[in-house]
Amino acid sequence: MKRFASLFEALDRTTKTTAKVAALTEYFTTAPEEDRLWTIALLSGRRPKRAVNSTELREWASEAAGLPLWLFEEAYPVVGDLSETITLILPPPQHESDRSLATWIGTLIALTGQPAEARKSAIFAAWDQLTTEERFLFNKLITGGFRMGVSQGLMTRALARATGIEETTLAHRLMGDWKPSSTTYAALIGENDPEADASKPYPFALASPLEAEAETLGAPADWLAEWKWDGIRGQLINRPSAFALWSRGEELITDRFPELAPLADFLPQGTVIDAEVLAWGQDTPLPFAALQKRIGRLVVPKKLLTEAPAHLLAYDLLEDAGEDLRSAPLAHRRARLEAIIGALPPGLPLSASPALSFDSWEALAEQRLTARERNSEGLMLKRLSSSYHVGRKRGDWWKWKLDPYTVDAVMLYAQSGSGRRATLFTDFTFGIWDGDQLVPFTKAYSGLTDAEFRKITDWVKKHTLERFGPVRRVPPELVFELAFEGIQASPRHKSGIALRFPRMLRWRQDKPVAEIDTIDNLRALLAASGGQPPHPRDI
User: Fold this and answer.
1) What phi and psi values does residue 230 have, to the nearest 5 degrees?
2) What's the rounded Cα separation, in Å, for the pair 376 and 287?
3) What is the count of structural domains for the chain?
4) Of 286, 353, 446, 448, which is least surrounded by CB within 10 A?
5) CA distance 338 to 315
6) How far apart are CA 235 and CA 252, in angstroms?
7) What's the CA gap between 524 and 432, in Å, rounded?
8) Contact at 8 Å (CB) between 161 and 133?
């Protein structure tokens, strides 16, 4: 654990990419293989399941520190992080331990399902053996909140330097549904069994936001333009011993979309397609809200299968007849993709995402304005000569999204943030007019500067009307412009609507609360986007 704590400290004290990669490279060269394996797992989002909940941890930490629970609860919001609060209040350890990261994680995993007293005893014993730095990391592992400030791409780069294996090869080997409990470090980074890894996906290529004018990209003839569909990015694999659909988050979602199963019988063996999973109706994508009803369901009822059948719109061909095409130009990959799809019988839930025809950037900009009519977020621009890269690589793939929707609203409630913003009020609940009443309709916590949050925090402290635990009710006076990507009906909310990705664009100190938007404006937007608000009696 000491070696892992030293790595965390080295990564935490620098913002330089070269320094982070150097620290990781040294660690992957010198640490025990079991610790390397768990570090790779943690940095790629594979954390052990929580065996202790936060209520138990707060109570046990208070007892271990000899503090009343109320005092801990007062300190927690000030510190802003549960793991750090526990670390700060615990007495010095009475024993030393040289147990490895893998051993401590094994201890946590073994606590799952154990009686509360057994779990408490094991946690107390761990706290009594770990240094301050080690306790903090151990607490993070317990709570499931472990973050290391290192992208998976940087981790893969360091691992490539430590092992001498090419970065793209390693990135592919680290994909899929592997678990530290069922593999070894050597098996993970070494040559894998083709039969066992037949369903393994490739790392996804990602696009960067287009911030400059499109004209700066050069000749339009060098680019492919297609709609940026608003669904679930997926990778469909049809190999001799595997048919699988993976999400971009490396989640196996094959069983959640049973309508796609017939593709296993018709797609050629050795085919891997990058595509978007969409809810489909009348030969056109349905709004994301239709697909969202299916997200998170392990079993999809027949009603939803009928109302929102799944369809794949294919972007790219990564593998054809078992041949890895990722290094080939996009123009070549698209031609082969369209040939494969063109040879399929009609009626299958797969089609190519249409390439847009344009001879000037001005003409393409006109087409972009119609994106929402097609339930699209905007455009994707891809250089026809580009390879299928790993992760985000600026220059070849761009996303040219539409400007977001906006609404002016007033703050009704405020809550403090977490981490470095734990002492600031940053999480706000907003309201808009419903007749002559203000109705809460969304929350947002990002978009402003620290300086603005500090000013708002001072105002909240001076104008608090009521407290509900960490939440404060304030007079409806501060107006903000909010941005959001979509809107949908929601019987769970008093307003009858829910916004997608709301965030604060600016603090409207120039606008009085009497001039903010109304619920009727949002209901009109909802109706225009194809949805209908629920009847008031259903809210």
Assistant:
1) -105, 80
2) 9
3) 3
4) 446
5) 10
6) 10
7) 14
8) no
**What amino acid is encoded at 208 in this protein?**
S
Q: What CATH number is attached to the domain comprising 31?
A: 1.10.3260.10
Place of tokens 């000749």: 219
Quick one: CA dihedral 203, 106, 144, 23, positive or negative? negative
If asked whether residues 255 and 395 sit together in one domain, one would say: yes
DSSP H or E segment with residue 12 = helix 2-12
- What single-letter DSSP state applies at residue 516? S
Nearest 5 degrees, angle CA 181-CA 186-CA 192? Answer: 90
How many other C-beta atoms can be found within 10 angstroms of the C-beta atom of residue 388? 24
For the segment 467-476, what is each residue's pLDDT rounded down to a tens digit? 887 889 999 9
- Arithmetic mean of pLDDT, 251-275: 93
Q: SS3 for 381?
A: strand
Domain span including residue 316: 205-401
315-341 residue pLDDT tens:
999 999 999 999 999 999 999 999 999
Task: Give the residue from 401, 416, 448 where a domain finishes.
Answer: 401
Asked whether the whole model's pTM tops 0.85, one would answer no
Encode 468-488: b = buried (16+ Cβ within 10 Å), e = exposed. Answer: eeeebbbeeebbbbbbbbbbb
The torsion angle over the Cα atoms of residues 234, 240, 241 and 244, rounded to 10 degrees, is 10
Nearest to 89 by CA among 109, 65, 53: 65
Residue with tokens 């009443």: 437
Q: How far is it, in rounded angstroms, from Cα 18 to Cα 15? A: 9
**Positive or negative CA dihedral for 473, 477, 478, 479?**
positive
SS3 411: strand
User: Residue 192 pLDDT > 80, yes or no?
Assistant: no
pLDDT at position 530, please? 60
pLDDT of residue 194: 53
Residues 374, 376, 378, 382: what is their CA dihedral angle, to the nearest 10 degrees? -100
Which of 96, 122, 143 delimits the end of a domain? Answer: 143
Longest dimension (CA), the chain: 74
Distance CA 268, CA 236 (A): 12
Nearest Cα to Cα of residue 61 among 133, 1, 142: 142
pLDDT of 214 above 70: yes
Q: Is 336 exposed, middle or buried (0-12, 13-18, 19+ CB in 10 A)?
A: middle
- Cβ atoms of 418 and 497 within 8 Å: the answer is no
Give the rounded distance of the alpha carbon of 60 from its chain centre: 32
| Type of residue found at 70 | W
Confidence of residue 491 (pLDDT cuts 50, 70, 90): confident
* CATH number for position 504: 2.40.50.140
Task: Find all residues with CB under 8 Å of 191, minimum gap 6, and list them.
Answer: none
Q: For 24-28, 76-80, 119-123, which range has the lowest pLDDT when averaged over its residues?
A: 76-80
